[in-house]
């Protein structure tokens, strides 16, 4: 097909709700394409309060549109504009204007692959009990992620408990729903591997686990989707999440729209429907553990993780567990394979590694931040464990 020359910059509307990580990443991919192959004159609708954007598009004399179509307002805007468009992760057809999906190309995350990746990740870690917590309205991408997760789990001979649906009152008010989610999490066979449809939902699962007194990740592991670092890094513990190929999706959507806007007069390009598989699971603390069937050991591990940076020792761990040291040591070694002191030191040294790699803190400051009594003692432990000094380790990073 001959590329049509343009008489001026294309007028392109971008419809994204940039409060969500996936939308921001898609937009970043679109902008990356525009910087290379533009210029385009961009009209960016970001879903911010007070924006007067959608009514103006009804009679808009534009060239093309790209949008994440997760609400009816954006769908109606595309329908009314009557220009070439690429729709990303659209709603169910029944929630859209008639014929919209048939008229425009559609790019989407591979929902089945996302659910299967989550299941495979947990199965590889030895979990046998599973649960899924979907988006509160049961939107199409949430349902399909959950269905694929459950199907993969069932194929492995395991059961998957599906949480929900919610009442109208629970959908409006997290305070109303939280008690129900707590009860559901408590009732799951332990240790449980929970898959949440999105990071915001994963954060709520972690909140409910904390309220219910459940140890994460030893009693309940939590994995979500989108890898929004603002969410995943601010939860307690940090949330593991599936990273999506959204930047590339945005870049390829822009490439396709460019072709549509440059098409030879009277020629129509074939409608494209394309699914983008997820990239990877980004493991953080919420899944970074082996399944622990013993709740006593799970409580001891959680105490170690929460307090390893403080000058605590085995007596404090035993006191927290509320049993004899001999009993706790026996059960701990049976589940984890090491002593309480070994695990405490391993947890501290893991934090030492992170601080050496990510900061310029002195050895004295790192020792204080990781629960060691002195910098010299930390230096001896580190050299005995890893066969090098901390200075040598930092130089290799």
In short:
This protein is an alpha/beta fold and 397 residues long. It has helices spanning 21-37, 54-57, 72-81, 100-103, 111-124, 140-155, 168-172, 174-187, 199-212, 229-232, 246-261, 295-307, 314-321, 325-336, 340-358, 363-369, 375-386, 390-396; strands at 11-15, 41-45, 64-68, 85-88, 105-109, 129-133, 159-163, 192-196, 220-225, 240-243, 273-276, 280-282.
Shape: globular
Compute the CA-based radius of gyration.
Answer: 25 Å
* Proportion of residues in helical segments: 40-55%
The beta-strand count equals 12
Overall mean pLDDT: 88
Identify the CATH architecture of the largest domain. 3-Layer(aba) Sandwich
Number of domains: 3
CATH class of the largest domain: Alpha Beta
Write up what this structure looks like:
- This protein has three domains: 11-108 and 245-279, Response regulator (Rossmann fold); 111-244, Response regulator (Rossmann fold, 3-Layer(aba) Sandwich); 295-396, Orthogonal Bundle (Arc Repressor Mutant, subunit A).
- The protein has 18 helices and twelve strands.
- The protein has helices spanning 21-37, 54-57, 72-81, 100-103, 111-124, 140-155, 168-172, 174-187, 199-212, 229-232, 246-261, 295-307, 314-321, 325-336, 340-358, 363-369, 375-386, 390-396, and strands spanning 11-15, 41-45, 64-68, 85-88, 105-109, 129-133, 159-163, 192-196, 220-225, 240-243, 273-276, 280-282.
- It has a six-stranded parallel sheet. A six-stranded mixed sheet has the order 7-6-8-9-10-12, sandwiched between helices.
- The two termini are 50 Å apart.
């Amino acid at each position: 097909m001959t590329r049509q020359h343009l008489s001026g910059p294309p007028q392109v509307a971008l419809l994204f709700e940039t409060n969500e990580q996936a939308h921001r990443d898609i937009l970043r991919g679109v902008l990356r394409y525009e910087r290379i192959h533009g210029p385009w004159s961009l009209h960016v609708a970001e879903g911010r309060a007070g924006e007067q954007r959608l009514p103006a598009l009804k009679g808009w004399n534009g060239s093309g549109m790209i949008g994440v179509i997760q609400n009816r307002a954006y769908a109606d805007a595309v329908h009314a504009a009557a220009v070439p468009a690429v729709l990303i992760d659209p709603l169910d057809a029944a929630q859209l204007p008639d014929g919209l999906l048939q008229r425009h190309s559609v790019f989407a995350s591979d929902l089945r692959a996302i659910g299967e990746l989550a299941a495979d990740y947990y199965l590889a870690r030895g979990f046998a009990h599973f649960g899924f917590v979907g988006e509160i309205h049961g939107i199409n991408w949430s349902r399909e992620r959950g269905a694929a997760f459950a199907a993969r789990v069932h194929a492995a001979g395991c059961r998957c408990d599906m949480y929900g649906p919610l009442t109208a009152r629970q959908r409006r008010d997290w305070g109303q729903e939280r008690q129900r989610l707590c009860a559901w999490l408590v009732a799951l066979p332990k240790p449980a591997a929970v898959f949440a449809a999105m990071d915001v939902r994963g954060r709520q699962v972690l909140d409910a686990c904390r309220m219910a007194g459940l140890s994460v990740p030893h009693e309940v592991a939590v994995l979500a989707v989108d890898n929004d670092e603002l969410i995943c890094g601010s939860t307690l513990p940090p949330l593991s999440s599936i990273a999506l190929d959204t930047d590339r999706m945005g870049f390829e959507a822009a490439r396709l729209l460019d072709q549509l806007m440059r098409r030879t007069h009277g020629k129509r390009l074939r409608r494209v429907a394309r699914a983008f598989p997820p990239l990877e699971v980004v493991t953080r603390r919420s899944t970074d553990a082996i399944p622990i069937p013993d709740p006593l050991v799970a409580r001891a591990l959680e105490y170690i993780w929460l307090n390893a940076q403080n000058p605590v020792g085995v007596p404090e761990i035993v006191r927290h567990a509320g049993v004899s040291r001999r009993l706790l040591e026996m059960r701990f070694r049976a589940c984890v394979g090491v002593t309480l002191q070994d695990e405490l030191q391993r947890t501290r040294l893991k934090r030492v590694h992170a601080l050496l790699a990510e900061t310029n803190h002195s050895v004295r400051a790192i020792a204080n931040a990781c629960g060691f009594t002195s910098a010299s003692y930390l230096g001896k432990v580190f050299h005995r464990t890893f066969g090098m000094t901390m200075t040598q380790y930092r130089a290799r990073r």
